[in-house]
Recover the amino acids of this structure.
């Protein structure tokens, strides 16, 4: 008998427009604890917007958004979108981490301060404990000895690993990646892939928006293919890539191969 | 008049000039930041009020503003101010004028910050105040040092405008001495003073710039 699956994230019937452009059209998606989900699709398919709505950087126009079964945003009886109070949203933000495409490290903070400042000043945790955890995270990211370096002194791959450590330092339940290798030289994508694979082995729940099919196939339990604001197809990494059903997915995969 | 007397008179003038300079900075640097917040406010009324204030301060001569602040209480409100109001009026006019210029420098710095910095801070759970104080403002300071240096150097020279209200600063003293002596020695000394003052200002600002050179973006 298997234990009931625990939805960390659940989005239902999500819609989002920018002006007259519908970017998300009726998206429903659940992510279970320990699951690694890759979201692929052509640019403009809405995958980054989906991530930005899940991380509260954008607001949904309609639909619902839940973390751990707790409603964050939903339609009220009049059909108006209602978000939780600012205070509640602040607590929800501690449940997830986000790794940006262009890192967005704080350039005036050292590597160590980038990682430790949020737990110390946002979560008000014990400094000593945070520093020890940060040291362990740096080791895990292969960045020992870089504590006092400034972000500008690091390579893109190293900066991205610092930003992953920064997100992990807040102990999120789920970690989102927004095209984490797109700003990197191709030879540096391997180091990010290794880190994500190591996190997957520890059963870290992750949602990764990516262009890298190899990446998605290797690390993801499930791949979601989005196009024009819809989830066109989803399934296990193998079946989706090796046996695509929809024409648009086939065309997308063909284009990547050439 | 003995040279030592001249030096003594100019010395007291120099102290007054430095006072005008320092009090203006102490008042206008924080006030300018507040004004820039008003200029970027979501409240339309406040935003337009602040815009009007900035455009008046930048669009009219500082010398005119000095006179309005000095004579305003009497001609508009009928209040007779004491003799020491000269100095206070000078400071009020200078602070109001410089706050307007500083506010636009702050605004340019704040608006030049990439959106990603705000987004990263938001996702990491920083409050709006924390985001500004810990993440945004320290980076803004680095970005605005060069235009701030320009304004500060202009301020050193503008202190001479206090002469128009009869404040006994450097230029006022020098002019009085020149009138009584019939030679330009006092002007020469005043020129050396302003030049030296600005050399010190430039030196300090360079040090500040270097202090922020520990990172680049």
């Amino acid at each position: 008998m298997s234990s009931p699956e625990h939805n960390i994230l659940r989005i239902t019937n999500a819609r989002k427009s920018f002006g007259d452009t519908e970017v998300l059209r009726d998206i429903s998606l659940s992510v279970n604890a320990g699951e690694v989900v890759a979201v692929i699709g052509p640019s403009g398919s809405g995958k980054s917007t989906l991530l930005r709505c899940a991380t509260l950087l954008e607001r949904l126009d309609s639909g619902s958004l839940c973390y751990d079964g707790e409603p964050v945003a939903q339609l009220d009886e009049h059909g108006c979108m209602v978000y939780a109070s600012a205070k509640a949203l602040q607590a929800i933000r501690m449940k997830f981490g986000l790794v940006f495409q262009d890192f967005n490290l704080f350039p005036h903070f050292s590597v160590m301060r980038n990682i430790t400042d949020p737990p110390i000043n946002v979560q008000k945790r014990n400094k000593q404990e945070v520093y020890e955890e940060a040291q362990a995270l740096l080791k895990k990211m292969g960045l020992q000895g870089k504590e006092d370096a400034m972000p500008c002194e690091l390579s893109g791959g190293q900066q991205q690993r610092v930003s992953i450590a920064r997100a992990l330092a807040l102990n999120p339940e789920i970690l989102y990646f927004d095209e984490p290798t797109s700003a990197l030289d191709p030879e540096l994508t391997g180091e990010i892939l290794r880190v994500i694979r190591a996190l997957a082995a520890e059963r870290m729940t992750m949602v990764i928006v990516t262009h890298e099919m190899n990446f998605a196939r290797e690390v993801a339990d499930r791949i979601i293919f989005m196009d024009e604001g819809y989830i066109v197809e989803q399934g296990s990494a193998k079946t989706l890539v090796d046996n695509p059903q929809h024409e648009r997915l086939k065309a997308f995969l063909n284009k990547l191969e050439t | 008049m003995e040279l030592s007397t001249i030096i003594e008179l100019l010395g007291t003038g120099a102290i007054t000039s430095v006072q005008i300079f320092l009090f203006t900075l102490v008042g206008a640097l924080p006030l300018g930041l507040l004004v820039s917040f008003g200029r970027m406010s979501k409240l339309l009324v406040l935003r337009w009020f602040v815009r009007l204030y900035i455009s008046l301060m930048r669009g009219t001569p500082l010398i005119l503003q000095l006179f309005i602040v000095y004579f305003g209480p009497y001609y508009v409100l009928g209040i007779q101010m004491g003799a020491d109001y000269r100095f206070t009026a000078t400071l009020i006019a200078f602070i109001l004028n410089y706050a307007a210029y500083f506010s636009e420098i702050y605004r340019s710095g704040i608006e030049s910050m990439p959106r990603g910095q705000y987004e990263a801070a938001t996702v990491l759970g920083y409050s709006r105040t924390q985001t500004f104080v810990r993440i945004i403002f320290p980076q803004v300071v680095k970005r605005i040092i060069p235009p701030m240096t320009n304004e500060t150097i202009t301020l050193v020279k503008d202190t001479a405008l206090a002469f128009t209200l009869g404040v006994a600063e450097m230029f006022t003293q020098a002019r009085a001495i020149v009138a009584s002596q019939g030679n330009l020695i006092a002007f020469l000394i005043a020129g050396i003073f302003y030049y030296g003052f600005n050399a010190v200002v430039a030196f300090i600002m360079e040090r500040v710039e270097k202090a922020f050179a520990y990172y680049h973006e």
In short: Chain B has a mean pLDDT of 94.
